[in-house]
Specification:
Alpha-Beta Plaits; alpha+beta; 4 strands
Length: 122
């Protein structure tokens, strides 16, 4: 499994339309990647460590079956998905591709989308 985290910095004067993101962009991503797409999580920053504004406004975690399937889908659909970004934000996203190395969380990322439980790792 591989995860793509997309971070949108909290920037004064910038916009992020969560309704569009959850109602249009995420379903479009799921549709384009098909069964390679295992699920997603979206987090909205609530505060920074000092109690002030969070450095990140929104983070989307997208889970895929494998790096190979991610690349395969990206080659076909990234132009369309990237072109959709201005429809919900004017914040420049930061993309990070991640592979899980350890964890103790007992739930599956994206479990509500029908994926199987993720195995715990030591």
């Amino acid at each position: 499994m591989v995860r793509v985290s997309v971070h949108y910095a909290a920037t004064p004067g910038k916009r992020f339309d969560m309704e569009y993101y959850l109602g249009k962009h995420v379903p479009l991503t799921k549709q384009r990647y098909g069964d390679a797409f295992l699920g997603f999580e979206v987090y909205e920053g609530s505060s920074g460590g000092d109690g002030g504004l969070p450095p990140i406004a929104v983070t989307g975690h997208f889970y895929f079956e494998s790096a190979e399937r991610l690349v395969e889908g990206a080659q076909k659909h990234n132009a369309e998905l990237l072109a959709d970004i201005p429809n919900f934000t004017d914040i420049v996203p930061v993309f990070v591709i991640e592979s899980r190395r350890a964890g103790s969380v007992g739930f599956a990322p994206g479990a509500s989308s029908g994926s199987k439980p993720a195995p715990e790792t030591p």
